[in-house]
Structures are given as structure tokens and as C-alpha cells.
Amino acid sequence: MTRQEQLVFCKKCTNRDFNITEGVLCKLTGKKADFEDTCPDYHLDKKMVIKGLPSKKIKPNEKRAAMATTMIWAVLAINLFALVSNYFQYDLLQELDQGIDVTEAELTANDLRVGLISVLYLLIYIISGITFIQWFRRAYNNLAARTKIDHNEGWAAGAWFVPIICLFRPYTIMKELFVKTNKLLRDRSGLATEGNEMTLVGLWWALWIIVGYIGNYSIKMIFKEDTIESLLKSTIADMATSVMEIPIGILAIWMVATLAKKESQLLGLEKEELKKMEAA
């Protein structure tokens, strides 16, 4: 786009300004037009807001969605190793409980294996949590740019760490993302939405809460008296957690992929509306 074409484009926008020495400026950036093809800030024009297009800049979220999905798959992979490892530990503990001789080498090897997998799991889990929350907050930020939201955008990240609130607010925000994104799509295109989405979101959160309680039980068992019985209970709890984390991970991947697809569809529809307005 030439300089003259940029100025013509700016004449359509109510966010333009004029400086006697520099000429036409953008009120939003305070600079001369330097965009190519389409102005990235044009959607902030008041005329656009009246038409129902985003009142804030939509931030890209595709890479965050892809990274979150990749890390959830990584958690699922290491989780399977942890499940097998805990099964071997459970078998070893049963032999000890039954009075079967177990060598020192077997005990040492078990401790090293369990310890190594636990460290790797924790590391991957933390990275996965960070990438998921980054995607989650960006998705809520983009929803806030398009419509009124029920909470401050910061809660999409902070809600996971505040006692009591962490038991319900991440779920209500996830539910809000689906409900309001679906409404935006219906309003713009009449596209049908999946009827079982809220059921799957509810199942994801119910399993998450249950796993949290099982995890707390497992930790309590570890810090109790160091007996074979307490270790057996802790190992069983760990295996139960590993099994339940599989559907949690799969549902989380589905949620990220589904919302990413909806966000892409919505962005495409908004760009089409923008082109129609520019042509008008």
C-alpha cells in the first residue's frame, strides 16, 4: 500500500488527527500511518464499535493454544510412565508386606525410578500449567474485547491460585468462554454449536476436583508414619490419580482445540465484516 493509499484509508477512520508539521497522524499511536494492506488498529474506530465489532485489539492466541496442547500431551505421556512405575512399587510393597525377601538393590532401584519420574512429572506439569493458563487468559482477554465478561480478565490466571475461589471460578470462566463465544458465532453467522459442550466442561472440572482431593490424601499418607501400610495407600492413591488424569488431559485438549477453532471462525467473520465496511 502506497503512502497516498494509506492516507485515503485513514480518511475513513474517526481516529485520525492532523499535525501542522507532520500531517495526518493516528490518534491511537500518535504516529504517521505505517501499516501495510490493512490498519491493525482500525477495529478501534467508533464506527466499528457501533457495528458490534471488537472494541479492543484481538491478540493472537493460536501459538498459545498449540503450546498448551503440546504440553498436555507431554503430561499424559509422563503420567503413563508414572502409572507403570507406581504399579511396580505397589507390587514391591506387597512382597515386603507378605514377608517375601526383597534385596537392597531392588529397593534402591525402585526409589531412584520413582524419584526420577516424580521430578520429571512435576517439571512438565508446571510448564503445562503455565502454558494452559497463558492460553486461558488470552482467550478470556479476547472474549472481553468482543463482549461484556463476568469477571476481571486477571481472574483467568489468578483464580487458579486463590483458596476457595480456585474450586469454582476457573470452571465458571471456562463455561463463560464457551457460552459467550457460541453466542457471538450464532449472532454473526447462525452457526450451530455442539449440544454436549457444557456436559464435557462440567465433567472435566468434576474430575479435576476429585483428583485434587485424592492428591491431598496421597500427600497426607506420605507424611504419616513411614509404614508399609501407609506407603501402599499412598501408592494406590497415586495410581488412581494417574488413571483419572488421562480423561482430564483429553478433555483439556478438546477444550483448547474447540475454543481455538471457534475463535478462528469468529475472527474470520469479523474480518469479512470489516472488508464490507471498508468497501461501503
Structural class: mainly alpha
- The secondary-structure element order is HEEHHHHHHH
- Average residue-wise pLDDT: 85
Overall radius of gyration: 26 Å
Number of helices: 8
Beta-strand fraction estimate: under 5%
The stretches of 5 or more residues where confidence is low (pLDDT under 50) are 46-51
Shape: elongated
Please report the total strand number as a whole number: 2
| Share in helix | over 70%
The largest sheet, given as strand count, sense and whether it forms a barrel, is: 2 strands, antiparallel
Straight-line N-to-C gap: 19 Å
Walk across the major sheet and give the strand order: 1-2
Structure, explained:
The chain is mostly helical and 280 residues long. The chain has eight helices and two strands. The protein has helices at residues 3-10, 46-50, 62-97, 104-146, 155-158, 169-189, 197-223, 228-279, and strands at residues 16-19, 23-26. Helix 4 (104-146) packs across helix 6 and helix 6 (169-189) packs antiparallel against helix 7 (197-223). The longest helix has 52 residues, at 228-279. The protein is elongated, with a radius of gyration of 26 Å. The protein starts with a helix and ends with a helix.
How is the secondary structure organized here?
Elements: H1 3-10, E1 16-19, E2 23-26, H2 46-50, H3 62-97, H4 104-146, H5 155-158, H6 169-189, H7 197-223, H8 228-279
Antiparallel strand pairs: 1-2
Helix pairs in contact: 3-4, 3-8, 4-6, 6-7, 6-8, 7-8
